[in-house]
Amino acid sequence: MRIEGGRPLSGTVQISGAKNAALPALAATLLTEGQVTLSGIPPVADIRTMARLLARIGAAVEERSDGYRVRGASEPEPTAPYDLVKTMRASSLVLGPLAGHYGRARVSLPGGCAIGARPIDMHLTGLKALGASIGQERGYIEAVAPRGGLVGGRIRFRRPTVTGTEDLLMAAVLAKGESVFENAAREPEVVDLADLLTKMGARIEGAGTRTIHVEGVPSLHGTEHRIIPDRIETGTYLVAGALTAGRLTIRGTRREHLERVIERMRAAGCRIGSPDANTLEIDGCTDLTAVDITTREHPGFPTDMQAQFMALMTQASGTSKVVETVFENRFMHVLELQRMGADIRISGNTAVIRGPAQLSGAQVMASDLRASACLVLGALAARGTTTLHRIYHLQRGYANMAEKLRAVGARVEIVDA
Ligand code: UD1
User: Which residue minimizes the CA distance to atom 31 of ligand 1?
Assistant: First the structure.
């Protein structure tokens, strides 16, 4: 992607559905033989990977203009193979629904990942608590339910895990009896999944709080559901607006999902307005000041916005500290920002940024999804032209980013997809 920096952005950006809510929603279609119609599914590579996975398992997957219609398999092949899991760790989201509905799931072990070890041990101990036996052979994890199906159980998460909570929620909805999750993830994507499952006939209470109760039901049925807007895409465009002297209106979002991000950006001097609960407006800021952030589980500052916020802080006056507590090794963007002229030092899980720095265009390499977004933001603020390599990372999670940026005045082109 080639980006010419220093141009003011102005106009309207329409936010797409949340990738991280759409992935578990697609996995949830495995819980019924009924027809589930999902809309607001973003056109990104991770979603296409999940749709391919559902089709391999045996579901009938029909792509529609704004989403998918899925009818679950009656005779599934309950396996997530290595070639799909290696491109997308979230493939492990099919473990719970397959074990819950069909009594058996095989998922390839995810392997290494650019942002730390990212194990799935909590998914597995949770499945055990619901009665599954877990085995491992030839790089695959196998979960097998007892003869009568999974049974309700008590799961206390060592720390909140987003896809772990979602995976086990999908396992518990068809288990016999009551399940209780303690220290569960409270992210909006978990709530959206619980809403979908409830429409399918599940009985869930407490999604969005630390404790979730599930009363198992014998079967689930088809339904229709619209995915929530992408809060990370929203935050990314807010930063784009803040970094370029212009005015952006961001539509189709949910302000309530971004409270911490908005609060930190305002503390840094950004002028963010909100005429209604689904719209945000940002004025390009010329006098940013340094503020600190520490990433935490929701409702704390999201780790998925850490890299983009760091791009913003390179343009703020003073010294800011960015502390990453959710993932180890999530500072891959720092070296590339430094090559563009940023003044950043890392010590352990803390990055110290001194600004403002005049960034200049360079050849940079994307290492993961949010790191790539950070480099696009840096490039928009930089003098000259930046070429971002390996944009497949960006395309995993951002819907039509080049088009959306061009529509508000950026000079962005995809040179080689
Ligand atoms: C999800 C999001 C990802 C986001 C992350 C944190 C999706 C598809 N991805 O990832 O974009 O950055 O939440 O908000 O929704 N952990 C374990 N054992 C486990 C599971 C997790 O130790 O079994 C650790 C992880 O290594 C990490 C922490 O728990 O340090 C939180 O990870 P988790 O919430 O599980 O992240 P994901 O669900 O993979």
Answer: 161
d(Cα 127, Cα 168) in Å, to the nearest integer?
7
Smallest Cα–Cα separation from 94: which of 113, 114, 116, 70? Answer: 70
Q: How far is the CA of 362 from the centre of ligand 1 (A)?
A: 32
Rg (C-alpha) for the chain, rounded Å, is 21
The DSSP bridge pattern shows strands 223-226 and 35-39 to be parallel
Mutate to test the pocket of ligand 1, among 162, 257, 329 (most ligand atoms within 8 A of CB): 162
**C-alpha of residue 297 to centroid of ligand 1, in Å:** 10
What average pLDDT does the segment 50-76 reach? Answer: 94
> Is the peptide bond preceding residue 299 cis, with omega within 30 degrees of 0?
yes
* Residue 113 known to be catalytic: yes
Q: How many C-beta neighbours within 10 Å does residue 240 have?
A: 29
- Which token pair is 253? 């979002």
- 159 Cα nearest atom in ligand 1: 29
Ligand 1 atom closest to Cα of 124?
23
Nearest CA to ligand 1 atom 35: 161
Query: In this predicted model, what pLDDT tens digit does every residue of 210-263 receive, in sequence order?
Result: 999 999 999 999 999 999 999 999 999 999 999 997 899 999 999 999 999 999
Report which protein residue has its CA nearest ligand 1's atom 8: 20
From atom 33 of ligand 1, which residue's Cα is the shortest distance away?
161
Q: What is the helix, strand, coil percentage profile of the chain, to 5?
A: 35, 30, 35
Distances (CA, A) of 53 to 30, 84, 113, 197: 11, 7, 20, 20
Residue 155 burial (10 A CB sphere; 0-12, 13-18, 19+):
buried
Cβ-in-10-Å burial (0-12, 13-18, 19+) of 12 comes to middle
Between CA 200 and CA 194 the distance in angstroms is 10
Per-residue confidence (pLDDT) for residue 114, from 0 to 100: 54
List residues near ligand 1 (CB under 6 A): 20, 23, 90, 116-123, 159, 161-164, 185, 189, 303-304, 326-327
- Tell me the pTM: 0.97
